[in-house]
Amino acid sequence: MILVVDVGNTNITYGVFKGEKLVSSFRMTTGTIRTSDEYGLELLALLNINAIDKDKLEGVMIASVVPKVMHALVNAIVKYIGKKPYLVGPGIKTGIKIAVDNPREIGPDLIVDAVAGYALYGGPVIVVDFGTATTYIMINEKGEFFTGVVCPGIRISAKALWQDTAKLPEIEIKNPRSILAKETISSMQAGLIYGQIGQSKYIISEMKRESGLLNAKVVATGGLGRLITDETKEIDVYDPILTLRGLQILYDKNRRSKPQLKEFENENAPE
Predict the structure, then answer these.
(1) Using CA of residue 97, residue 219, residue 257, residue 4, what is the dihedral sign?
(2) Model pLDDT, residue 45
(3) How far apart (Å, rounded) are the C-alpha atoms in residues 17 and 2?
(4) How many helices (H) and strands (E) does the chain have?
(5) Do the two domains 2-90+249-265 and 122-240 of this chain adopt the same fold?
(6) Tens digit of pLDDT for each residue in 31-85?
(7) Which of 47, 98, 117, 199 could disulfide-pair with 52, CB 3.0 to 4.6 Å?
(8) Nearest to 34 by CA among 77, 83, 78, 69
(9) Are 62 and 74 in contact (CB under 8 A)?
């Protein structure tokens, strides 16, 4: 079995794979500042609750867009799991070509989604990740990741509404019964959900048109992906564990290489 870790801006998502099968997954919040011991003890507790024997974990793969948590998290995995994790970043084997002006600017999360989208669904493919940010990436039939679009996610937009306006309340993000809202809460829900649906339809159609890849398959993932997928014909597949599956694929591609730990070995940040 292997442990994969997706460190996002909102949550840290863990997945345990046995071969290509996801046997367990669980989360903790990213925003809470933790020491390596706190990460380690919480991780051991989550593994225990999910009946996962840490001694049977063969390796660990991490993708992170939150550098400030990595020193403590990596140290926790080394200390409590006993494995040096692979890190998604420059030098790692991906099986795809990053064909953009500056490949180092591409976030690990986008690389993982691109790897999974191409490996599992072929090319050309558009992967839409409805996370803290909503991202659209496109990989052609040659396995080249050549373009991407980044937008505010639904939760970011919702937070801006209730934090930056005097009278709008914090609301549950869900699909209202109709776009013809008649009170404040459903009006906000309609704007957030149907605004995201409209954005998704337009960006997907324009990416296909400008690239000429009109037959590109569209795969959605991310926490709110199901909500949008159910309301648009432009999205072909919703795969809620796409990112975790991408990490498992990357582990298999890199398992014979030395784990990528250089950026943390000389770091003096507190644990």
Answers:
(1) positive
(2) 97
(3) 5
(4) 8, 11
(5) yes
(6) 888 999 999 999 999 999 999 999 999 999 999 999 999 999 999 999 999 999 9
(7) 47
(8) 69
(9) yes
H or E element, residue 62: strand 59-64
How far apart are the C-alpha atoms of 246 and 97, rounded to whole Å?
15
So where are the chain's domains?
2-90+249-265, 122-240
Confirm if 128 and 116 have CB atoms less than 8 A apart: no
Q: 3-state DSSP call for residue 87?
A: strand
Task: Quote the CA–CA distance of 83 and 85 in Å, as a whole number.
Answer: 6
Residue 271: what pLDDT? Answer: 53
Catalytic residue ranges: 109
Structure tokens at 164: 């930056």
Return the CATH fold of 2-90+249-265. Answer: Nucleotidyltransferase; domain 5 (3.30.420)
Do 84 and 61 contact (CB within 8 A), yes or no? no
Tokens of 114: 């691109």
- Which of the residues in the chain have pLDDT under 70? 258-271
122-240: CATH topology is Nucleotidyltransferase; domain 5 (3.30.420)
Burial of 131: CB neighbours in 10 Å, binned 0-12, 13-18, 19+:
buried
Task: Write down the residue that tokens 């500056």 correspond to.
Answer: 102
Q: How far apart are CA 2 and CA 124, in angstroms?
A: 29
The pair of three-digit structure tokens given for residue 262, joined into one six-digit string: 């250089």
HSE toward the beta carbon, residue 103, CA cutoff 13 A: 13
pTM for this one? 0.90
- The first and second tokens of residue 155, run together, are 């939760």
Residues 161, 167: Cα–Cα separation, whole Å: 9
